[in-house]
Design brief:
Helix content: over 70%
Radius of gyration: 24 Å
Shape: globular
CATH class of the largest domain: Mainly Alpha
Number of helices: 17
Distance between the termini: 14 Å
Largest sheet: none
CATH superfamily of the largest domain: MetI-like
CATH architecture of the largest domain: Orthogonal Bundle
Mean pLDDT: 86
Number of domains: 2
């Protein structure tokens, strides 16, 4: 009986979390529908203020906006379930296709920013916890305050000014590659990965150079919470009774620190997943500053052209990414920490 309950625990927990994720996405989609179909006139937003009444009536009939609101809502949900995010009025291309082309660039930038962020936040957080109020702790706290306070677009502009305009060590911030570089064949959509797959080493080096500054910008502005949480979690664990007992039994300091880090890993893992989700949906200004061809730049360009279908597509995609990342973080927490597994009974 106990074994059967344990076997059912995981499927029930996953089913519950999936149901919660589905309800969250339904709420986001409903809110998007209300904003676009009830609080405003989509036809007027598309055609602009100079449109005639005849043009507005024709477009409303063409897009189905003259139907009852409830029927529009069910049609809207049905289109989304089939992956239909609408058509861009500016490019006349399906929004789903254009997002599919640009989203890998955003994933590449977000992954690079998170990777660089973990390289400095985890070591600094652990060292700060081992010696609170020491010189490293004070420096790390200053970095955290700076990273949280400084806007990402301002830091990006500053890095461009220093590394490109003044010191001439960075390439021109105009996309993923130099103009003279040969783009690799598209496999994943991520330029660095595709160039490695194709064996185009010069292209890979050019892609890494262009990726460096925007990734550093994200690592500094988005990852300080990981440092702060690592420090606080490690301090709490190091003050635990099991750490005192391990030290009393004469275990090596390195072993004690390793087990302390494993016990502090759960909140750090959750924060890392949350940061990655934020980066996937929150790189808009950084992509704009560095002309990075991701979904953030796509959304801004669409807003400038009063093209709202791509903006809504990006909003729905970003919301879906957040929901899936949080779901992944919860499942990972259940795998890592037995206390979480016990709490799901």
């Amino acid at each position: 009986m106990i074994a059967s309950r344990g076997a059912l625990r995981w499927p029930l927990y996953v089913a519950t979390r999936l149901m919660g994720a589905a309800l969250a996405m339904l709420g986001v989609v409903t809110l998007v529908f209300i904003v676009t179909h009830v609080l405003g006139d989509p036809a007027r937003l598309i055609l602009g203020p100079r449109a005639t009444d005849e043009q507005l009536v024709q477009l409303r009939h063409q897009l189905g906006y003259d139907q009852p609101v409830l029927q529009q809502y069910w049609t809207y949900l049905g289109n989304l379930l089939h992956g239909d995010l609408g058509v861009s009025q500016y490019t006349q291309q399906p929004v789903r296709h254009e997002i599919w082309l640009r989203f890998p660039a955003t994933i590449e930038l977000a992954a690079a920013g998170l990777f660089l962020g973990l390289l400095w936040t985890l070591p600094l957080g652990i060292i700060s916890a081992l010696r609170p109020r020491g010189i490293v702790d004070r420096i790390s706290q200053t970095i955290v305050e700076f990273g949280v306070a400084v806007p990402s677009f301002w830091l990006g502009i500053l890095l461009i000014f220093l590394f490109y305009s003044v010191w001439h060590v960075a390439p021109s911030p105009v996309g993923e590659l130099d103009i003279s570089a040969i783009p690799p064949p598209r496999v994943t959509g991520m330029t660095v990965v595709d160039s490695l797959i194709a064996g185009q080493w010069e292209t890979c080096w050019s892609a890494l150079q262009h990726l460096a500054l925007p990734a550093i910008t994200l690592a500094i502005t988005a990852c300080p919470p990981i440092l702060q949480l690592t420090r606080n979690s490690m301090i709490g664990v190091l003050r635990g009774d099991f750490v005192r007992s391990a030290r009393a039994f004469g275990l090596p300091a390195r072993t004690v620190r390793w087990y302390a880090f494993k016990n502090a890993l759960l909140p750090i893992t959750t924060m890392t997943a949350m940061t990655f989700g934020y980066l996937l949906g929150g790189t808009v200004l950084v992509e704009l500053v560095f002309s990075w061809p991701g979904i953030g730049l796509y959304a801004i360009q669409s807003m400038q052209q009063f093209d709202y279908a791509p903006v809504l597509g990006v909003v729905i995609l970003a919301s879906l990414v957040y929901v899936l990342v949080y779901l992944f973080a919860d499942l990972l927490a259940m795998m890592v920490d037995p206390r979480v597994r016990e709490g799901t009974r």
